[in-house]
Every structure is written in structure tokens, then in C-alpha cells.
Amino acid sequence: MAALPSATQHQVVAASPATKAEARGLSFYYGDFQALKGISMPVHERQVTALIGPSGCGKSTFLRCFNRMHDLYPGNRYEGQIVLQPDNTDLLARSIDPIDVRMRIGMVFQKPNPFPKTVFENVAYGLRVRGERSRRVIEEKAEQALQDAALWDEVKDRLHQPAYNLSGGQQQRLCIARALATDPELLLFDEPTSALDPIATASIEELMHDLKKRVTILIVTHNMQQAARVSDFTAYMYLGELVEFGVTDELFIKPQKKQTEDYLTGRFG
Amino acid sequence: MRRKHQDVVFALVGIVALMVAVLTFLTLFVNMAVDGLPRLDWQFFTNFPSRRAAQAGILSAWVGSTLVMVVTAFFAVPLGVASGVYLEEYARKNWVTDLIEINITNLAGVPSIVYGLLALGLFVYQFGLGQSILSAGLTLALLILPVVIVATREAIRSIPQAIREGSYALGATRWQTVRYHILPYSSAGILTGIIIGMARAIGETAPIITIGALTFIAFLPPAPLKAEPPFLSFDWVMSPFTVMPIQMFNWTSRPEAAFQDNAAAAGFVLVIMTLAMNAFAIWLRYRLRRNIKW
Closest Cα partner for A233 from A214, A215, A207, A252? Predict the structure, then answer.
């Protein structure tokens, strides 16, 4: 396959929102295999940005660069930059400790992964990790996070029961609350509803809509309708390259690239 | 029809194979119980060994075994668990860790007498620890170290990666992840491994004889608790000692039949101790796993 043409940026009109993070020429390697090829795109502040594309296109790999998740495994290598605003920090710089990156950027995984502890301990964990000792502060923040995750009313009477007793959708909202408790600047969602039923999916989507008022969201989804419903900006990726990035409504209605159009109309992928 | 016959044939072969193992153990156990049970009374546990079979007891042996086990656990548990956690959660996967891994697996297969020889040279003479409870405890700790390490690693490996990623994604350090997740969730498996290792150690004879445990001990080590400050005393670790299997060995080598019954009774007690430890391991695993499911 010949080199793909470089990504086209839609002209984002007038009041373009501020940039929260920006990938600049980001390449990523699993050992010798290059999974990402020079990706450059912004993530706008307090907006939902969706990453779509066929399986294996590198969208999850890209997402996991933002909180340096790849550092947990040997043989992985980044090239390029991801710059986080407002302090203009390159998250991938050698001098930056991945732990400090993860203190600022939260993540919600594909399959709900609550810890085998109580509901309360799950939400409190991020605060405890940061050295918070005051019971009162932890309780306040935990309640606030559960409220923000639209879970408080359902769990307030069983905060000290095992998190595994919750339903799948509730577990995923608990994982969102767990991430929210530490006030992340950017929240990463890695196909957060692929293990959930349609009703639980709807509640998570609604939640994302409310959350974007205070936190920037980057979401990977294999479900194009979901991207259309929840996101403000969409990036289409294919074989480790960014094909097209733009305002969701424009990208879905009038894609600039033939490739994007083929994918969106189901002729491919 | 041939295929179904094969099924039945294999089931029969399997049952026979199983019975060989079960029945052999049962026969030995019942035989020992029949010979030994009449000797089991309170005095048997509170008497020192004696030249007269009817008055001989296992006091010094069971006290010795218990104290040696305390020393063994004291050294084997922290060393084994720390090694297992390091290998699973910290060590980079390269040829060095591969080499260490192969070594540990092989250590588990080294005959125990070899550990005895090593301990005789190193602990007894080189370190000057003498023929003491401390030497014996260290020797058995070395012997069961591979068991503890392997059990720790197996238990840690059964924790889903999603749990680790969840913890790291919240900004946790490695140590926080180990402390709040890895150790608590693997504790059932680790404890089971420790107890099974200890159950093996309590029956070991060869390395203990090699380092020079005495076969006739008519006194107890100094008590670990004292009436005057500082109340605790560690003099006992340097004391000469004997253990259950050595006491048995001593009795079986005597010509009088009455001593054979003593040996059977001591053997019965030893088997019960081992079975009790294994039962405790199973119960513990059940208790701790109840609250954890993935």
C-alpha cells in the first residue's frame, strides 16, 4: 500500500475551543512493529473527541499513549510528542515520570475493572494513592465523584459492600467515579460500553455529555453511531495513520476523504 | 462401540491407579495407628525420651519441631514472598530473570541431603551457628524457599492484568499497587504455598541429621519468655535440639519391640500434624477467596 496522503484538517470555524492536548508527529512501536505513524491532532478542551476506525487501526494504542500505559510493558517506544496544556508539558518526554502523567489523566477501560474491594474503597483509592489521609475529605470527594458519575443514589446505602455486587453498567460508572475522584484534566475512555447492554450504554453516553462541562474527554469507540451521538470532534484512523480529523457533524455528513466515506457508509471496515 | 469401550477401560485403569496411591497411604496410616495408638497418652507428650520404652515421650521432639518451624517460617516467608513479588511485578523479562527462574525450579528438585551438607559447611561451621535450632531453621528455610517463591508467583499471576492497569491508571506507584492489590489478592495462594512448604519441612530428616541434631535430648531449650525485663529471650535459637522425625528414626533403630510402638505413635502424631497443616491451608484458601472474584 502506497503512503497515505497526509490528514486533512477541516477548517474549524470561528470560536474554535482551546486545545487541551495535542499529538505532534506521534509514532509508536511495539518492538519492531510500528503501530502508529506520525499522528498529529488536537484534543479540544471540554469537548468530546472520538477515535474511530476498524479493528487494529491503532486507536486504542493511540489512546494509551496519553497516560503512558505502554510504559508498563517492555519493548515499547514512542516518537514525537503529546503536549498537554496549559503548562505545555510533553507527556512523552524522558524527563516526565509516567506516574505524574497518570495523576493528571484518568482512564476508563473496555471491561469494567473495579477492584475487589468495597464501592467506597474503589472511589477512595485514587485519593489514598495521592496520600490523602483525612477521612472527611475522602468521604466528601467520594460522594461528589459518585454524584458526578450518576451513581450516588443507587449505591449510597451500600457503599461498604463489595463492588462486584453491582451490575455491569453500575460497575462501569463506578470506574468513571473512581477516575473522577482525583479531578483529572483529561479522561480517556477505551471502548467503555462494548461490554454493556444498550440501556447501560445509553446511561454512560448521557453521563459523558454531562461530564464534558468540566473535563476533556477522549474516547475510542468501534461504534460509529456512538461517535456521532457523543462526540464533538472525530478522528478516523486506519492502519496506524490518522486519515481525517474534524468536527463530528461535518466529518459524518461530508467526509473529505474517500476512505473515510467508505468506512462511514459501511462499504469497508 | 469400540470407542466407548476404550472410555470404560481408561476409567477403570484410572480408578486402579488412584487406588494404589490411596490404599497404600491408608494401609500405612492404619498400620501405624494400630501399633501406636495404645501408646498415645498425655505422658507421651510430656515425657522426655528414656531408656525405658514405656516412659519415653516426645516432649523434646515436638517442642524442637515447633521451634524449628518458627525459625523456618521467620526466614522463608519474607524472603520467598519478596522474591516472588519482585520476579512478577518488578523484574524486567530478560535472560537474567530467565536464568534465575530456571535456577529456582531446579532448586526445588535438589535432594534435601545436599541442603544438609551445604548447611553443615555454611551455617554450622562458617557462620559458627553450631548444631542449633537456628541452623536447622535456616536449612529448612532454604529447602522450602523455592516452594514459597513458586506459590507466590502462581498466586500473583492469577490476578488479572486489568486490576494492575486500573491501579496504575490512577497514578499508583508499583509499590502502592503491590501493597493495596497484589499482596491482598494473592495472600490466599501465598499462604497455602507457605503451609504446604512447612508441612514438607516438618517431616524432613536427612538435612537435620546432617547438621548434627542430637537423637537423645532430655532437656528443653531455654524459654523464650522471662519473668524479668526484657521478658523476651532468644537464647533458645542457639540450643541443641531434636525433631519428630529424628526421634522416630532413633526409636526404630532400637532392637526392643516396645520402642517400635513408640516410633509408630510418634509417626502418627507427625502425620496428624502434617494433615492438620494441609487442612488449615485449604480452609484458609477457602476463607480468603470468598470475597475475591474476577
Answer: A252
Find all residues with CB under 8 Å of B271, minimum gap 6, and list them: B29, B32
Nearest chain B residue to A64 by CA distance is: B169
Nearest to B169 among A69, A114, A116 (CB): A69
Per-position DSSP letters for B223-257, written without gaps between them = PSB-SSTT-B--GGGGS----HHHHHHHHHTSS-H
Provide the 3-class DSSP secondary structure of residue A89: strand
Query: Distance between CA B144 and CA B74 in Å, rounded?
Result: 12
Per-residue pLDDT of A96-107, as tens digits, reads 999 999 999 999
| Contact by Cβ (8 Å): A218, A42 | no
> Which parts of chain B fold into alpha helices (H)?
2-36, 42-46, 59-85, 95-107, 112-119, 133-157, 161-169, 174-177, 183-202, 206-210, 244-252, 257-289
Dmax (CA) for chain B in angstroms is 81
CA angle A259, A261, A264 (to 5 degrees): 110
CATH code of the domain made up of A18-264:
3.40.50.300
Using a CB-CB distance cutoff of 8 angstroms, which residues of chain B are in contact with residue A113? 160, 162-163, 165-166
Alpha-carbon gap: A40 to the closest alpha carbon of chain B (Å): 24
Could you name the CATH architecture of B40-289?
Answer: Orthogonal Bundle (1.10)
Query: CA A252, CA A52: separation in Å to the nearest integer?
Result: 11
* pLDDT tens per residue, range B1-27: 788 888 999 999 999 999 999 999 999
Chain A positions contacting chain B at CB under 8 Å are 67, 69, 72, 74, 99-100, 102-103, 106-107, 109, 111, 113-116, 125-126, 128-130, 162, 164, 175, 178-179, 182
Distance CA B148, CA B164 (A): 22
* Whether ipTM exceeds 0.90: no
The more confidently predicted of residues A2 and A113 is A113
Query: Could you give the C-alpha distances from A139 to A119, A158, A215, in angstroms and in order?
Result: 12, 14, 21
CB A114 within 8 A of CB A122: yes
Helix axes A135-148, A168-180, angle to 10 degrees: 130
